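Technical annex, item 7. During the second reporting period the consortium partners agreed on a shared format for inverse folding records so that results from different sites could be compared directly. Each record opens with the tokenized structure and is followed by the designed sequence. A conforming record, contributed by the partner at site C, is shown below for reference.
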């Protein structure tokens, strides 16, 4: 089988031609969430294309819809479950921070400074920047985003 080279966070890895980036991440022990089970319905497996976008498949309709819904503000966002490697020279970066596991998890952090950027587990939205105080408003933001996301999924 033909392989292509992908650079993930400065490390070059070999990937089978036409494999999803999600499978490449798993094969190379890159920690990534996949809350929707790889269906392209959430943004928990998102990454950022820094170079070689032409060596990836075009975004699927599902990926476009999901990324439109999310609040990921950085350009070059793609979903690892929907993106396939079809050529050389892809350079990607992963989101910096940690995905909050639940509303209860975020609630336990209220009143303390975030040691890492806290990211919504489904939408990829930054809830609290690293070094900032975690406020109750971050929990409300998470609840609101989760509710909107659930509504979005129920209409699918």
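Designed sequence (site C submission):
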């Amino acid at each position: 089988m033909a392989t292509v080279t992908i650079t993930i966070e400065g490390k070059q890895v070999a990937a089978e031609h036409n494999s999803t980036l999600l499978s490449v991440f798993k094969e190379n022990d890159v920690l990534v969430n996949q809350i929707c089970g790889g269906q392209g319905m959430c943004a928990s497996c998102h990454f950022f294309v820094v170079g070689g976008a032409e060596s990836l498949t075009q975004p699927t309709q599902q990926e476009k819809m999901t990324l439109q819904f999310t609040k990921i503000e950085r350009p070059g966002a793609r979903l690892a479950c929907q993106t396939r490697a079809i050529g050389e020279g892809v350079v990607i970066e992963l989101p910096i921070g940690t995905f909050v596991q639940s509303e209860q998890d975020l609630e336990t952090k209220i009143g303390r400074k975030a040691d890492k950027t806290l990211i919504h587990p489904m939408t990829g939205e930054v809830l609290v920047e690293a070094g900032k105080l975690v406020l109750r408003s971050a929990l409300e933001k998470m609840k609101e985003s989760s509710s909107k996301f659930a509504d979005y999924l129920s209409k699918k």
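The mean pLDDT is 88. The chain has two domains: 3-93, 98-154. All partners now use this format for quarterly exchanges.
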